[in-house]
Write a structure and sequence with these properties.
2 domains, three-stranded parallel β-sheet, about 160 residues, elongated, Ribosomal Protein L15, Chain: K, domain 2
């Protein structure tokens, strides 16, 4: 047996022979329809052509900005705003919502030290906090706890 005598299990499908007479069913117009650009030799529109209107890819640079789909929008709370709570209290999203410091309970909260000075000892439970905010709370013998364990970029890369 030689290589020329080998055949696969799946039979070969013969190609469509167009323009070989009307008896074949693919004659006269050779499956291209009647007239027009696409009947002509080489008569195809380039990829991205939209019939003359400004193509999508040319409109794209005109759209301003970029919206990151993975961005997390935090509700901001400053350490100076926490002076309305009693000393030695535990402050979490429920307590912040009750005092109207945040608008939604289930949206993540970030603690910042940009406005005001903390004057009370508090245990604060948030999703994220700045280094200055943590230092401000710990300076008053308070504590900052996180809902989810914060991992550094190096730890995430090693996982």
């Amino acid at each position: 047996m030689t290589l020329t005598e080998l055949s696969g299990k799946i039979p070969k499908k013969s190609r469509k022979r167009v323009g070989r007479g009307n008896g074949s069913g693919h004659g006269t117009y050779a499956c291209k329809g009647t007239g027009g650009q696409t009947k002509r030799s080489g008569g195809r529109r380039r990829p991205g052509f939209e019939g003359g209107q400004t193509p999508y890819l040319r409109r794209m640079p005109k759209l301003k900005g970029f919206r990151n789909p993975n961005q997390i929008d935090y509700q901001i709370v400053n350490v100076g705003d926490l002076n309305i709570f009693d000393s030695k209290n535990k402050v979490d999203a429920e307590a912040l919502h009750a005092k109207n410091l945040i608008s939604k309970r289930n949206k993540p909260v970030k603690l910042l030290a940009s406005k005001g000075v903390l004057e009370k000892t508090l245990t604060i439970v948030v999703d994220k906090a700045s280094k200055a905010a943590i230092a401000a709370v710990e300076a008053k013998k308070g504590k900052v706890e996180f809902h989810q364990a914060q991992t550094s970029k190096k730890e995430k890369a090693s996982e």
